[in-house]
Amino acid sequence: MSEIQLPSQFESFAEARKQGFVAVKNLKEQGKKVAGVFCTYAPVELVLAAGAVPVGLCAFSDETIPEAEKELPRNLCPLVKSSYGFAITDKCPYMFFSDLMIGETTCDGKKKMYELLGEFKNLHVMQLPQTQQDEASQELWYKEVLRLKDRIEQDFGVTITEEGIKKAIKVKNEERKLLKEFYELSKSCPPPITGAEQLKVLYGSQFKFDPEVKNREIRETIDKVKADQAKGVENVSPAAKRILITGCPLAGVTEKVVRAIEESGGVVVAYENCIGVKPVERLVDETIDPYRAIADRYLQIGCSVMTPNPNRLELLSRLVREFKVDGVVEMTLQACHTYNLETTQIRKHMQKEDMPFISVETDYSTSDAAQLKTRLAAFIEMLS
């Protein structure tokens, strides 16, 4: 198997979060406003249209959890505890430099954490409906989008123009199209890149703040991978079992799941979760009222907080077919009740698809890395 020379952009995206700390500081010194977002439900087009910079805030490390547990219960989702811990310790530069934080009423843990966070951070909480199925919920979310627009204009001292919001929609849609083209490279058999390399770009793209530079680097990465494919270069064994990952957000310490899979004879070809396909798959309609279009697009994200949640099932079925998946791995975080409860439904759905499925539960420590590898290696061996 020929050795592939991976594009330098892969390491660029891998380092993006760390390098972004300096970039955000520089942007602040230039007078730019920064809006931190916790979730893919936050419509970042409004931030861009205001001339501000959106940045992701969710933390993926157990570093500050002990500090968070002085106020929060121990049996709480590690993502919630980590996020709060980084906020109270100011160890996350993105939280430190945020002029406004945008939260959303997804899970109960986040809702109550936001009440505490709002006591010392400038926080706006969007009231997310719990269903996508009825007109009342759709109307509520549309009004929440408009309420966020008003808050951003008030806090940042700007007016979001019609031209500005349409331009922001176009820019984000272009980014989504490029990221979709990038991850769809892994539909090939064998895929041209590993799941670890794919994740570097999908996650790291959140921390590149110049849209034109970011889109250019994604384009260059795609073109380089395609060029190597055309030369017959293989980076992944054709015998590797093709795995789809679903479940909770995956980054930081939880990348141990990807490592366990790819060190055991598998390759991750698709990420359904909100670090992967889920926030990229749908575009904002550029032909209708921009705020209605934004509301419609974001409300359709298939998160486990929605009841019912048919969009997740539909997306999973499609990804299984299109990426020629051999098995599905669900990664859930301890005490993430919505995803843990939805596991039964996902397992039944995968059985209907005649698709091997395993669910693993973890947290932000590395203590279970060996156990995870043993379980996932056995699962991949079963696929042979």
Describe this structure as you would to a colleague.
- The protein has 384 residues and is α/β, with parallel strands linked by helices.
- Helices cover 50% and strands 11% of the residues.
- It has helices at residues 8-14, 16-29, 44-49, 65-68, 78-89, 93-97, 108-117, 135-156, 162-183, 195-204, 211-230, 256-262, 290-299, 310-322, 337-352, 369-382, and strands spanning 34-37, 53-56, 100-104, 123-126, 241-247, 266-271, 327-333, 357-362.
- The strands form 2 sheets. It has a 4-stranded parallel sheet, sandwiched between helices. Strands 6-5-7-8 form a 4-stranded parallel sheet, sandwiched between helices.
- Residues 1-10 have low confidence and may be disordered.
Q: Please, how many helices?
A: 16
Q: What general outline do the C-alpha atoms trace?
A: globular
Q: Roughly how many Å is the radius of gyration?
A: 20 Å
Give the N-terminus to C-terminus distance in angstroms: 21 Å
For the sheet with most strands, the description reads:
4 strands, parallel
What is the SS-derived class?
alpha/beta
Fraction of helical residues = 40-55%
Please mark out the parts with pLDDT under 50 across 5 or more consecutive residues, or reply none: 1-10
Q: How large is the share of residues in beta strands? A: 5-15%
The secondary-structure element order is HHEHEHHHEHEHHHHEHEHHEHEH
